[in-house]
Amino acid sequence: MTTTIRVSDETKDRLERLKREGESFDELLDRLSRGEKDIEAMAGSFDRPEDEGLSESVSQAHNELNQSLEDRIDGSEK
Predict the structure, then answer these.
(1) Which residue would you say has higher pLDDT here, 57 or 77?
(2) Are 30 and 18 in contact (CB under 8 A)?
(3) In whole angstroms, what is the distance from residue 18 CA to residue 23 CA?
(4) DSSP letter (8 states) at residue 6
(5) pLDDT mean across residues, the chain
(6) CA-to-CA dists, residue 71 to 13, 21, 67, angstroms
């Protein structure tokens, strides 16, 4: 089954820069979405009392890395 997803030209340009050589958009989106799920699952595994605060630290690091990536992508568009 194939689905069409509409994105702006700017979003398409950013996605093209994130693609690896020979990687399809389907593979790129799968890789990016898997990364989000993997991070959330990893952060959730630290919900034991002895790991107090670790889940928040992992989530904060994840958010900081995402922001850094967005800043680099936005900076390359200028």
Answers:
(1) 57
(2) no
(3) 10
(4) -
(5) 80
(6) 15, 22, 6
> 12, 2 in Cβ contact below 8 A?
no
Whether the per-residue pLDDT at 66 is higher than 60: the answer is yes
Residue 24 falls inside a structural domain:
no
Could you give the number of structural domains in the chain?
1
- Residue 57 inside a domain? The answer is yes
Closest CA to 18 of 69, 75, 78, 71: 69
30 in a structural domain? no
Question: Can you give the pTM of this predicted structure?
Answer: 0.45
**DSSP reduced 3-state for 8:** coil
Confidence of residue 14 (pLDDT cuts 50, 70, 90): very high
What range defines the domain where residue 39 resides?
A: 35-78
In a domain, residue 27? The reply is no
